[in-house]
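Data's thin. Show one?
=====
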Amino acid sequence: MDYKAYIAEKLAVDGVSPEEILESIAVPPDPTLGDYALPCFKFAKILRKSPVAIAEELAKRYETDEIVSSVSAVNGYLNFQVDRAGLFKNFRESFSPLLTEEGEKAWTGYAAREFTKNSDMGAKKTVCIDYSSVNIAKPFHIGHLSTTVIGGALSRIYRFLGYNVVGINHLGDYGTQFGKLISAYKRWGNRADVEAGGIHAINDLYVRFNSEATEEMEAEAREYFRLIENGDREANELFETFKSITLAYVKKIYDRLHVTFDSYCGESFYIDKIPAVIEKLEKKGLLVESRGAKVVDLEEYGMPPFIVLRSDGASLYATRDLAAAFYRKETYDFDKCLYVVAYQQNLHFQQLFRVIERMGEPWAKDLVHVAYGMVSLEDGAMSTRKGKVVWLEDVLSRSVEKAAAILAEKNPDLKDREKVAEQVGVGAVIFGALYNNKIKDIVFSYDKALNFDGETSVYVQYTCARAASVLDKLGGVPFHSGEGAQLNEREFALVKALAEFPDTVRAAAVHYEPSMIARWCMNAAQLFNKFYIDCRIVNAETEELRSLRKTLTHIAFSTLKKGLGLLGIEVPKEM
């Protein structure tokens, strides 16, 4: 239970939504004033009363219970005091499914209790998530990190909430670049070198073509792409070779990032589905001609025209996106379809969604562009064509190497050091990409990405390892029943933070913002460590205290591990 949400649900202010009330509830700087407070100043204009009068009126109306023991009005603030014994009893009951040895089954029981009671979440709903979407024949660079880990986190979050999730890797497998690649291969490449060098050998050919291209070579590339489109055997065999090498390469990185997909249907898959969409547009009278091209006019919405077919009759990636949207609705009947794509494509998705809306499709409202910031090098943006790029595999490997060195220094006797280094190193990169709001641009720096101090996943992982060690020492100590517990300040602060986990996960799904979970993990870990330092756990003064603190430690360990797991980060047993 989120106690702020619990308080907000019981408050009714005319003309103010429950969401606004919830957003306004805060923790007072002075704990003697209360555990939570609602400032009433912003309601004065709506209610035409002074904040003092509003707070006093709300205080009289609010009914206290076993959770909120007292309410007071002070200088325009409505202050709430939580009954700590009642709070812990409720907390213990809410998290009771986790106080077992059933592992993931326990989380299924917990999710059923804490999430499915909200009828708007999960059950019998499908969400499609289009993310990562690599380009065939190009290596995975650091610019792919955000879409991959944000999309992966959202997939896990929605699954946890009970949704049927369809992860889609919309491959970039169509366009003249593949004609360029075949041209480069025929000029300078051979099968043995490509098979030995893999994706990097293919990329080297692509970079060389762009650096040496002449008009004759560009024309040759267009011809090779035409051959691919027309089913030429040799051209398509080469293309399929490049595609299989790419997918084998990216799968190794996806495995390291704990990312999976249900569909790898790329742009080429939708080519034969475009005519049906063109027919729909024509029947609606939406297609007009502009300089020989066929477009949908969006001038009344303040947008440039949406080009459907070029003057030579060829489709564009926008056309293929349109066909893909209809295919996904017909195939999966989604309740939401998310596109995890950089904010530079804002206009494209605004146009795409508006066109579908103009076609009379009610599900246009269920299409969501989950925009994120760009990643660049410290000395400028990356370009695959120029060969100026940081490979994601190198970033992960260097992070793991650094993790291994630190672990060797801190714990020379650590078992499974290679495995732990992988968990810590990869986790640091994922957490670094997810810790801040997704829309922020990232200037990639090795020093920052490989910094293991401060607000990092390493800190949270170490907290989990510390909690696991405590639980091992407590052995057969029973969990607390929840009755009559008296919490001190450290215990109370930790309970409040842990209790916010369900609402944090829900909020992350509603706002498409995994950073909410990352920040929850950091806050909960910090509070657990304060509790660990200030409260004797294994050697607690009484059996009841030992039982209570074991219960808190177990729930902290379980929720932190699950929180990191939703982000795609594993927790080592020992560090």
Observations:
- The chain has three domains: 3-82, 129-273+315-377, 392-437+447-567.
- Residues 392-437+447-567 form a domain with the Isoleucyl-tRNA Synthetase; Domain 1 fold (CATH 1.10.730.10).
- The first helix runs from residue 3 to 10.
